[in-house]
Amino acid sequence: MTPLYEQDFSEWVERQASLLRQGRFDDLDVAHLIEELDSMGASERRELINRLAILLAHLLKWRYQPERRGNSWRLTIKIQRLDVAALLRDNPSLRARLDPFIHDAYAKATLQAAREIGVEETLFPAVCPFTVEQILDDHWPDAAA
Q1: Could you give phi then psi for residue 141, rounded to 5 degrees?
Q2: Gene3D superfamilies under this entry (predicted)?
Q3: Is the distance from CB of 63 to CB of 139 less than 8 angstroms?
Q4: Which among 59, 72, 135, 142 has most CB atoms closer than 10 A?
């Protein structure tokens, strides 16, 4: 017989929540609950890295192609900053791990920015040129020297 977890995930979630509310801990599907909780945490981390990558790519484009700056890039930067702030507000423990997340996001951002503006990724610094504050706050990088 196929377990409820595999048969109807939504119903399984509702059942687990009901069991928790009732204090029926012995009836919980603990193995799958642990798996789902781990997955939820990983999902939040991936979402943060993806948002940071989009933000960093646009900050790089802003810095390295000032002649192409426009409302679209400006608004994307603002939207991603709002989204990152919301993720950090909802998951404050992620703030303490921003440095490695920025490192991972920057690797993606250089490739994305290079593809979008038609340059080699080696145009950009090997490590992120922006501080955490510059990434998250209202910072608008000047053109590259």
Answers
A1: -65, 140
A2: Uncharcterised protein PF01724
A3: no
A4: 59
State the pLDDT at residue 142: 87
Distance, in Å, from the CA atom of 63 to the CA atom of 101, rounded to the nearest integer, reads 21
Q: Cβ distance 128 to 63 under 8 Å?
A: no
Record the tokens describing residue 12, joined without a space: 């399984």
CA angle 12, 25, 91 (to 5 degrees): 70
**pLDDT score of 7:** 86
| Alpha-carbon span 86 to 113, nearest angstrom | 24
Check residue 144 and give its pLDDT. 67
Place of tokens 């993806």: 50
Amino acid letter for position 132: V
Cβ-based burial of 109 (10 A; exposed 0-12, middle 13-18, buried ≥19): buried
**117 in Cβ contact with 128 (< 8 Å):** no
Tokens 């509310």 — which residue? 21
SS3 category, 61: helix
Residue matched to tokens 């989009």: 54
